[in-house]
Design brief:
The chain is of the alpha/beta class. It is about 35% helix and about 15% strand. The protein is globular and about 70 Å long. The model has no long low-confidence stretch (mean pLDDT about 95).
């Protein structure tokens, strides 16, 4: 056994989160793609079967009240809230991340114009996941704003009295770089603008501190580090003191103050309910609720500590096993600048990832030359990390 393999054994033996692994449906594959789709929590299949057979099959429409279907978006939002540093009553679950980005960004422009009607510019992360950029462009056209794409590091330099809203990713999906949410939020506020954070690659992976840092609005998916399942509904956070002024561009009947009043005039409900639109996706939502039970007894701080240890160890193993020049790490090595993934650049990355998967190490490939490895601390162990790096070296050889 190699020194690194023995080190992995010792690290796994002292891992306070190791017991969580049995709460997931796993096999002998090293699964390092939880930053794209989280593994299946073991409690989910039974809960979904109950939702289908009993709640839908037997109770039928009574489940909207007796089964708690109607209040699920807020109830599950409150379950996610502590994982992103938010108090209850500010987070609602429903719709996709893309839809919630649209709601949040247009709502942000409208909030900014309540005190600065001349504000006519949306700043967007130029390195963002493409959908965020597409939606920011549409939101700019709809609100009569100019779109200004810039790198996150350049945001403070371009803010001004015409800036209405700023849309940023907390963690870069491609490189795994963690952006400075506290300082960037403060800079946006100093300019009198409203900030929207996309937490898709940080929710459930590291402390976010939405309330602590005064974030205005935030969105995030639930199928990555929150393990909610493919296409599970996203979440929308609206800070409590902004909720009475949040003007959603999608005023559906579910967000009406009297949804069953069937009135022709729209009047928004109070609180997080205002972020709802139409009938929630109940089966996906209840699967997500069951998945979130794996967080019982777990702190985000403990997850972050293990995440950094896993990624540090992976880089150590890659450095030991892979010949110099075989790969280039594009993820920052500084802990304060790293999310929960490692991105490595190499020639023929697509073919390399295909061969890794064939040998039981699952990550993913991002065009043109990036191998992405996501580390979900609730079920990834240090032996997994050592094996992944060793197999990578063998494939590259």
């Amino acid at each position: 056994m190699s020194e690194l393999a023995m080190k992995a054994e010792k690290l796994d033996a002292s891992d306070e989160l190791a017991a969580k692994r049995v709460e997931f449906v796993l096999d002998d594959v090293v699964y390092l793609d939880g930053n794209s789709l989280g593994a299946l929590p073991a409690a989910v299949p039974g809960r979904v079967e109950d939702a289908v057979r009993r709640q839908w099959g037997e109770l039928r429409i009574r489940s909207w009240t007796e089964g708690g279907w109607w209040t699920a978006p807020e109830r599950i939002g409150d379950r996610i809230a502590p994982l992103v540093g938010a108090a209850a009553g500010q987070t609602v679950v429903g719709d996709s991340t893309s839809v919630n980005v649209f709601k949040a960004l247009v709502g942000a422009v409208r909030l900014a114009r309540l005190t600065g009607p001349e504000r006519d510019e949306i700043v967007v992360d130029a390195t963002t996941f493409p959908t965020d950029g597409y939606i920011a462009g549409s939101a700019a056209r709809m609100t009569g704003c100019t779109l200004r794409p810039v790198a996150p590091s350049e945001v403070p330099d371009v803010l001004g009295d015409r800036t209405a809203a700023v849309l940023l990713n907390h963690v870069d999906y491609r490189s795994g770089r963690l952006h400075d949410l506290p300082s960037l939020t403060a800079a946006v506020h100093a300019a009198g603008a409203v900030v929207v954070w996309d937490l898709c690659h940080s929710a459930g992976a590291l402390p976010v501190g939405l309330d602590e840092h005064g974030v205005d609005l935030a969105v995030g998916c639930t199928y990555k580090y929150l393990n909610g399942g493919p296409g599970s509904p996203a979440f929308l956070y609206v800070r409590a003191d902004l909720q009475d002024r949040f003007d959603s561009p999608l005023p559906g009947w579910n967000s009406h103050v009297e949804p069953f009043g069937m009135r022709s005039a729209y009047e928004p409900a109070a609180g997080a309910v205002r972020g709802r639109v139409g009938t929630p996706d109940i089966l996906s939502m209840l699967a997500l609720e069951a998945a979130l039970e794996v967080w019982d007894g777990v702190t985000v701080e403990a997850v972050r500590a293990k995440s950094l240890a896993l990624t540090d160890f992976f880089l150590e193993c890659v450095g030991e096993y892979v010949p110099e020049g075989g790969v280039e790490c594009v993820t920052p090595r500084a802990h304060g600048e790293r999310g929960s993934q490692i991105a490595l650049r190499c020639p023929d990355a697509g073919e390399v990832m295909k061969r890794l998967i064939e040998r039981g190490v699952v990550g993913d490939f991002r065009h043109p030359d990036v191998l992405r490895f996501g580390f979900t601390p609730l079920y990834v162990g240090f032996a997994d990390v050592e094996r992944a790096a060793r197999v990578l070296a063998e494939v590259l050889a």
